[in-house]
Every structure is written in structure tokens, then in C-alpha cells.
Amino acid sequence: MLTDEQVMAQVRDGRVEMLALLFERHHIHLFNFFLRLSAERPLSEDLVQEVFMRILKYRLSFRGDSRFTTWMFQIGRNCFIDHWRARRPEVSIDDAWEQEPSPLPLPQDLAESEQEADLLSRALERLPLRKREVLLLSRFQGLKYEEIAGLLACSVQSVKVQVHRALHELRRHYLGLQGGNG
Known about the structure:
globular; mainly alpha; 9 helices; single chain
């Protein structure tokens, strides 16, 4: 079985039909990343498509010196930022990362079958966007701190601190929801 990096190297070298294999392997992970980041199913679907269009468009820039998933999430992050800027031009993306999330609840179709999973989803939604992003990348997408540091253009130590703080705040929200205070 070919690794993601080997498949992407083939796409880069002109075998663009191999992109379908990468789509099959990663579209659900990417969709879940966007869904948890934005809480908007149609937007998440659109962003997944945009990421794979950009992968195709920028395939020659793939050097293979990092994991494919790191490169893919960098493109995904850029797509999300571009969307955010186009949607809310009056708010800078830097301000948005620190902005408190909307108090609106998640749509009912996102409710998990188990109560704990639902509470975790709701607690995650209450996190500011930047904290939610580092948790999604580290815990849900399995990226290493070094990879996240590269994506966020900061130090590994900074990522560790951000993840620690995000987990602490997530726990606080989770316990608040569990106790009926949410």
C-alpha cells in the first residue's frame, strides 16, 4: 500500500487521478475538522472540496519533506481563513481567533447518540476558535506538536501551552454542561 506522500508525489508528477485515493483517505477527517471548527455542515462540505481543488492546483509545490496530512491541513487552514475573511471582512482573522464563540447551540443533526459525546461537542463549540483549532489538530486529527507549530507559525512550546490551556477550558465547559450550568 502506498503512503500518502507516495501517492501525492504521483499526483505532483502528473498522475492526477491518484488524487481520488487521497480524497477517499482524508475527506472525512477534513470534513470533521471543518465541521467542529465552523459548526456548519454545508460550509464544511464546500471547504473540503476547495481543499482538494487547491491540492490539485498547487500540486507542484508539494515537496514531500513533511507529512501529506500536515500539508493538507495547512491548505485547509488557509481555505478556512480565506472564507472567514470573505465572509466577515470587518473582522480581522487575528481578532477572530481570540473572539468568543457564538452562543448559538449546535444544530440538532449534529447531536451525538451518547450524552457524553454530545456534552463534549457542546463544550468544544464554546471554546474560542484558536483553542478549538489546536485541540482539533492535536487530539482529533493526530498532528504532532511540531507539525502544528509549523501550521501556526509558532514554537512547539507555544503549541503545548495552547493545547494545555484549551484542554483546561474544555474541561471547565464540559463540567459546567454536565452540571446543568451550560
